[in-house]
Structure formats: structure tokens, C-alpha cells
Amino acid sequence: MNGSYNTDLSIEEKCEQLRKVVSTNMKNKRQELNFTQEELAERVEMSVEAIGKLETGRQWFSVESLVRVCFALKTTPCQLFLDREHDYLIPAAEVLG
Questions:
Q1: pTM tops 0.70, yes or no
Q2: What is residue 16's three-state secondary structure?
Q3: Count of CB atoms within 10 A of residue 26's CB?
Q4: Mind giving me the DSSP string for 31-88?
Q5: Cβ pair 55, 26 in contact under 8 A
Q6: Residues 48-66: pLDDT tens digits?
């Protein structure tokens, strides 16, 4: 991985960056599989509203919902945490302080 992660950010900024990366990756993966939000919601037993909030970063995952979403999207949590724009995997330790 060639990118860098700005460690000078506040915890709030780090969390916002993480939400943005994960929500974008989730939406892109869903669209890559040609799933609608409704189809994904049904597969993961969540509401369409919850899927929309996850994809916009307005809601965060429980561990169970993260696993369900990854399973339905045929991906891994690591792939959702990968900042493709900067070719960087956001380390949870840095986000959590």
C-alpha cells in the first residue's frame, strides 16, 4: 500500500474519514453486484432506511450488521475499510486513538 493516513486528525475527523470510506465501499460493492438497496436490505434483514443510512455514513454498523453486510456483498471487512482513493487500509488502532 502506497498511500498515507493523516495521523494529525482529531478523533472526530478520523471517524468521519472512516465512515466515508466504508460507506462508499459498501455502496460501490452493492452496485457492482447489481443489488438495489431493497435487495440488500432483504438479504441482511435490515430496513431499506438503515441501508441508506449506512451508505451515507449517517449510521454505523454493529458487529453483527457488518458481518451480515459483508456476507451479502461477498466481501470482507478489510475490503470495506480499504481507502482505494489513497491505496491505504485505515487501521482501527489509529481511528480509535
A1: yes
A2: helix
A3: 24
A4: HHTT--HHHHHHHHT--HHHHHHHHHTSS---HHHHHHHHHHTT--HHHHTEETTTTE
A5: yes
A6: 999 999 999 999 989 999 9
